[in-house]
Amino acid sequence: AGAWPPVLVARVGRPRAWRPPAGERAAVLLESGGERPLPEALPGDLPTGRHRVEGRHGSTTLLVAPARCHLPPPLAAGGRAWGWAVQLYALRSRASWGIGDLADLAGLLATTAPLGAGFALVNPLHAASPAEPSPYNPSSRVFRNPLYLRVEDVPELAALDPAGRARVEALAGAGRGLLDQDRIDRPAVYQLKDTALRLAHGALGRLPARRAGLDAYRAATPNLERFATFCALQHDHGQDWRDWPAPYRHPGRPEVAAFGQRHRDEVDYHAWLQWLLEEQLAAVPSTPGGLGVLNDLAIGFAPNGFDAWSFQDELAPGITVGAPPDPLGPHGQDWGVPPFVPARLASHAYEPFARTIRAGMAHAGGLRIDHVMGLFRLFWIPEGAEPADGTYVAYPADDL
User: Fold this and answer.
1) Which residue in 276, 260, 261 sits closest to 201, CA to CA?
2) Sheet holding 49-55, edge to edge
3) At what angle do helices 264-282 and 224-237 cross, to 10 degrees?
4) 125 FRET partner, CA 20 to 30 A, in 3, 92, 203, 364?
């Protein structure tokens, strides 16, 4: 609404009629750093990307999107592929520490690609509370779960002294011992991997090139410092940020930044874990069809986790998402995840959504969107009410 909306989305090949207020001249500041005149009809010949339209009395974010999603060349040419649907935590090998990991995923693709397998569709790899059994109730859809790390592939292990290496070997033995259990013991896996990974992180200072690599990754990854600080706060104050001391309950508070400075090593550790996950996921081999890993995006995130803390200004307080009564669930369903407010998403130029999609597409050939209806509408349920008392709220599907 208004002469200068907070965001405009234009697709290549689909002209959009929008002009600044009458008589006002405007230019497009490109994401790449250049400047172009504002076309008569958007997007004109502007490149795809996240640009700014600047006028004398206003401005807006301009998102120029391609006409459709990218398809790998074999599929774009009409080809087909077959592959695996994998719950990664259950893809255990003899080398696993009680839970499937990214090296197991790499092994599956490398072993079956000669048979013609073109992809592995995995469960969401989102960051989650150590004891959380469902990949669809994550702490964050932007960052990943360290439980999926293969400890033996961490480069910093090579810099450990003999006593440290012996300690990691003992932890590995205990981790492989968890394979004898029929069920996955996530807290036990977390304790073993966290102990081993902290030993490896302690050796980072002996590897200058690795130290420089982590520093570069931290500088280039949006919101990573906030996420690592959140994890450090959880380490000190518990998993649910809503129970923390009041000064830490909003990421913009100066006390949060001060906490991060006081706990620099703990913040560095959690940033390093995300760097390792990035490296190990990137190392999963692609396939002849160019698909490799297909990621999965959960419909929402836990109210006590990082995304709910970080994006709280864009969320609807006192609201959860679910489904109305139907023959499958006569009383309806309440999934317990908070929704974005559409107008607040738009006021932030859809950045939280874009960041989430960007993370899901990284090192992947495709992205499955759980409950894709959520791009069109979500069923909102007021706190304390029954699902039958909820209502559908429309979302800007074309923009999303």
Assistant:
1) 276
2) 7-11, 59-65, 49-55, 26-29, 35-37
3) 120
4) 203
Give this prediction's pTM.
Answer: 0.95
* Both tokens assigned to 148: 């999926």
pLDDT per residue over 25-69, tens digit each?
Answer: 899 999 999 999 999 899 999 999 999 999 998 999 999 999 998
Residue type, 249: R
Name 382's Cβ contacts closer than 8 Å, sequence gap at least 6. 318, 319, 389, 390
Residue 1 has pLDDT above 70, yes or no: no
Angle among Cα 335, 339, 342 to the nearest 5 degrees reads 150
Measured on CA atoms in the order 273, 279, 281, 283, is the torsion positive or negative? negative
Q: Which residues of 155-174 are buried (b: 16+ CB within 10 A; e: fewer)?
A: ebbebbeeebeeebeebbeb
The phi and psi torsions of 380 (rounded to 5 degrees) equal -90, 135
> Would you call the peptide bond into 155 cis, given omega within 30 degrees of 0 as the criterion?
no
